[in-house]
Amino acid sequence: MERNRIAIVTGGSRGIGAATAKLAAQAGYRVCIAYRHRQKEADDVVSAIERDGGEAMAVGADVGREADVMRLFDAVDRRFGEVTALVNNAGILERQMRVEEMDAERLTRVFNANVVGSFLCAREAVRRMSTRHGGHGGAIVNVSSVAARLGSPNEYIDYAASKAAIDTLTVGLAKEVAAEGIRVNCVRPGSIYTEIHASGGEPGRVDRVKSRIPMQRGGEADEIARAIVWLLSDEASYMTGSLVDVAGGL
């Protein structure tokens, strides 16, 4: 490894985030798992990485809170050094409902966690990675969703809209920092078997909708993680501002 590789994976205690953290560690990254509530699950991911010979840490942080984000990055600075890879994976989904049933509190929660959090983490990463600030470059991968272009009518248009904002963040930031040694890309998962669907009130949603997917099945967290870690790697060295769908043909 030509230089220290340090990754932060937000929402890293379960699902896509946990799979990404483990795969990044296998690829040689020292990994910080950021979590909001699930300390035991985050610690379990750290333990799994360490059992395989990797280095990891877990930091509790609500990415929608600026002070928490700054504390997260400071903790990584102290333990591992300045971050070279960021995976903006943290996000929430609320119960399925139509727009006319949504209140402002719900919208604030969704956009704060899914959009504000990604902006704040990207800001702190750029401050450390950018050659403009004395950094040595790096890579950011944002986790969006195919919902950003499908809209999720009758279920969670708010979630879909928040992910559309992540798509725009990816394109704009990629152009802003391309000459400063930072690549910014986005993975848009389709229907994946993770616990997030229970938050929407339908744990078995993937099985209900899989017949609409051209490949006729839901995806697994590891399938998304492989795309994310590849985009972080030098194998994707000429990619920035790309939105990569991993959605079985949706």
Overview of the structural elements:
The chain has one domain: 3-Layer(aba) Sandwich (Rossmann fold), CATH 3.40.50. Helices cover 44% and strands 15% of the residues. The chain has 9 helices and 7 strands. A 7-stranded parallel β-sheet has the order 3-2-1-4-5-6-7, sandwiched between helices. α2 links the parallel β2 and β3. The radius of gyration is 17 Å and the shape is globular. This is Short chain dehydrogenase. InterPro entries: KR_dom (IPR057326), NAD(P)-bd_dom_sf (IPR036291), Sc_DH/Rdtase_CS (IPR020904), SDR_fam (IPR002347). Pfam families: adh_short_C2. GO terms for molecular function: oxidoreductase activity, acting on CH-OH group of donors.
Give the arrangement of secondary structure elements.
Elements: E1 6-10, H1 15-26, E2 30-35, H2 39-51, E3 56-60, H3 66-79, E4 85-88, H4 104-129, E5 138-143, H5 147-150, H6 157-177, E6 182-189, H7 196-199, H8 205-209, H9 221-232, E7 243-246
Parallel strand pairs: 1-2, 1-4, 2-3, 4-5, 5-6, 6-7
Helix pairs in contact: 1-2, 1-9, 3-4, 4-6
